[in-house]
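Bug #77: duplicate submission created two jobs. Keeping one. Sequence:
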Amino acid sequence: MYSVFQLKPANLRLLIFLTIISCLLLNCSEDSEEKPTEIIDVNSDDLTYLEPSNQRTGDPNLGRDYLLTGDYVGSGVPIDLFYTYYGGDDRNLLNRTGINEDIPVGFTAISTNSGVDVVAPNCFQCHASSINNEFILGLGNSFADFTISQGGTITLLNGIVASTYGINSPEWEAYLPFSEGTRATGDKLMTETVGVNPADKLALILAAHRDAENLNWLETPHSEIPEEVIPSDIPPWWTLSKKNAMFYSGGGQGDFARISMASSLLSIRDTVEARRIDDHFGDVISFINELEAPSFPNSIDQKLADEGELIFLDHCSTCHGTYGENESYPNYWVALDLIQTDRNLSEANFGSQGFIDWYNSSWFGKDPYSAKILPNAGYVAPPLDGIWASAPYLHNGSVPDLHSLLNSQDRPAIWKRPLNTSDYNFDKIGWNYQELEAKGNKFDYDTNLKGYSNEGHYFGDILSELERNKLLEYLKTL
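Kept job's structure:
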């Protein structure tokens, strides 16, 4: 027996037509409050199957160690200055030992080739966070603050490092690549709201300052850098193992290890260093692929969840897959005409022809582990494992909870984010929030701003409130 996810898009129209007929027949004999009364017709032309690519495998234990203590960002602030100006963190949430025992989660202390100990940013600035005061590795960080310019900070830090050690010192040499990368990004990554992320534009800026062939630093960028900063939410890492393409737009295809090591563009010196780092990232991807979604921490009404599963299969599974014993994920890219969400992220950064041409012709696009950036005017319908934990929702984090995602009339236009990780609503599944008349500060999310719209994904609007609650109960089980 074939599932919908084994069918190519060309066969979907007939399948969806039969599904509609069968659902209408069921509704003739059932209470409309107990069964969906309408199915949105998904045209097969709006769905594009993303083909899989060969992926490297490795040792997940080595991958974990490299993520937590490795030198994939090989330049940073001398460690004594880091402690003086940033301080340590005795919580040790990553359970690291040695030099990293009291380094904050978003940083890693490394020893450079010149013997200088520096502290560099790591992947957990974006890919680790807490919910209900529980730290979760791989959860997108929806509390990161990118509203502040780093331009003034790096200028001040340059002066401190130079005056403390001298510009001919090993410390300055170990610090310089980090300084160059941070100075280039400076005030070009400032978001309007705490919690959203400018990672796509960060990649574009750093690529613009790198030679495509040897990855040497270029003081003057080789291509234009756009002024606007289009925000993104950070998807959870534990869904990566199901995907055939990375990023919300589906643009990152090919070798995921090669794509993932792009964070090294901040401080990498050349392709020799790139190859050394790249050798570790097959292990890193193997570790990420073993991560599991956290279980819902509260009680679940199983009867309600079972009924919600039927609604999910009727309304959601074509794009988001099935779960449980016979899991299947379709890997569909969804056209903007269907999804109707804010289009700006799909057209910026990874949709920029200059960045696409640079990446695909650069060292990153070379065999044997080539990766590609392919533009798509739409978004991938993501796997929903652990969706209860990954608020806020949509690709730009514009919707605070799943209840309002499934009922667009309830979505707040301007809302205030919570200031702590325990301010969570386990019934509506998402962050508690305060609706506002106008944006007052950096913690307020204004959906009227470019790139911040909460429009689209209207598929839940046709459900009754009872159906919606059943569906929410099921989503808690994923």
